[in-house]
Every structure is written in C-alpha cells, then in structure tokens.
Task: structure prediction
Amino acid sequence: MEVADIHKKLAEKIFMGSSEIIPKIFAAIADQEEAELLLALPGTVESLSQALGKDSEKIEEMLNVLYRKGLVFKKSTPEGVLHRMCRDLMQFHDATILWPEAPREFLDLWQEFMEKEWTQFSEMAEKVLPRPVTRIVPVRESIDAKQQILAFEDVSKMIEEAGDIAVTNCTCRLTARKCDRPVEICIQIGKAAQYAIDRGTGRRIDKDEALSLIKKAEEVGLIHTTMNRAGDTHFICNCCEDCCMTFPVLINKKLKMCDPSRFVASIDPDLCQGCETCLERCYFGALSLNSKTNVMEVNAAECMGCGLCKVVCENEAITLVEHRPADFIPQA
Result:
C-alpha cells in the first residue's frame, strides 16, 4: 500500500476519511511500518505478531512507542493485554498532542486542522450528537447557599473525592498559542491520571496542588469543563475563550459543543456599583449595564453558568442561582 493511502486508511478508521489534514497528521506521527501495525489493531502482541509475521519483541517495542505517541490504548483481558487504536477524532487529538516528543511541525498541523476543518466538523457533530460531550462546572464558592449543588458539579468535591490526580498540558493552548494563560493546568482524575502518568504526559500531583491549580485557573479567567455525565469525572479542563476547541465555535458560530452548568449568574442590585469589571470576564455576552439604574444585568439565555464574573466582583454582588433541574446533566 502506498504511504499516502495507508495514512488515509488511518483517517478513515477514525471516521475522518474526507479530511485533507488528518492523513497528514497521521503521516507526521506514524511511519509506514507503524501505520501498518495500527491498521491491524485491535490485538494482543501474540495475535499481531502472527498476523504481521513479525517477531513478538519487535511488535511489543512498536506498540510501546505508539502508546507513548497516543495512538495506541491498552486494556487487560483474560487473553492478555489488548491494544487498540484511538477510537475517534477527539481521542486522537487529545492523546497525540501530548506526545512528549512531538515536534512543533506536528503541533502546527493540528492547528491547521483547527483553523481549516474544525468548524465544519463541529457543525456536523452538533447535528449528530444528542448532547455535547463536555459541560461547564461552576467556579468554587459561587453558588447561593440555598441552592442545591451536586457532588459531580462541585469542582472542589471532585478533587477531594479523587484517587489518583495528574496535571497535563492544555492541548488547545499547546497548539493554538493565542493567549498567555497557563499551559500546564488541565487536571486528570482516576484512570485518566494513571494513563497520563504511565505515558509520561502528565505529572502526579496531590489534592492541595490540584486545588491551587483550580484557584489559579479561576483567577486568570479559565472556565472549568468536565465530562457531560453525572458522576463521570475523568478530567477537569480549564479552558480559555480563544484557544479552546469548543468555546470559539460556541461564541462565534453558536454551535453547542459544550453544555452550560445548571446555574446562571444573579446580580444583587443593592451591592452592584456598575463598575463593569465583570464584563471582560463574560465571554458569552450575557452581561450588560443598565444605563438607567447603573446596575449590571444578566441575559439568562446567554449565561453559561461558569461563575468567572463572580471571581472579579469586589462587591460580592454576583452569585449563581439554579436555572436548570438536576436531571439536566445526563445520567449516562
């Protein structure tokens, strides 16, 4: 098989056969021999050795390299360790960008994809997916004390109840480089943390450091996002409005690639002084100043319930109040 054809086959395997750039990304991270092994997956070292007619030690060595690159994932089975390829575009993106030895040219290819093809993919995904894959988690200590906040939407509790915790680079800021926000600030929990540590793409941290990173993220204007399923927390990403995969298309194209939290901002008119400090923290256009009352107002339809506006309100005029029911967050 020709080299160009084999990398197109890999793109087809993650449902991106129509892309012009994804085959180039595969070509930049996997040579022909590695690509042939990827096409033979899933399999164990022994089954792959037989299928490809290669020595098992050679196969295992190649699989270890591809695992570090983020192209191969492992699962223990009664027959041995099963190796499979990344299953879709998102897993391909998140895993391979954190390849420790990734050259700048490889990261730039990913950014080219984001600039030329990502919006079209997002439009298609919005139509196909019943709900966005991720959702916003409010900042700490932003919910009105009278409101119900569940364990899986409390970022501090997520960390307190976590087992293994790791921090990795933000894949979006690593490739886009459009802002000066921190790069090493995305938190992995449980199996995701174990995976990052094992691959060498993240470093183990304790709960105190994780909470410090959460505070730092809020201070610099990053939005917490996680899996859009109740009780399912593998990561807490800390996203900006310009580099992130989801927020630019949400802000500029109104594509629902991330669900809001269950809450919206509420302004206490007796405490608000109309200073507009919160305006620059609202990336979604949900805040405006009422010129007659000199009090900030909230457009609930546009508010994503992140709580970043509260972080900068020196008068403590902003709280988050419940706007959507608890079953708004998918159970599975």
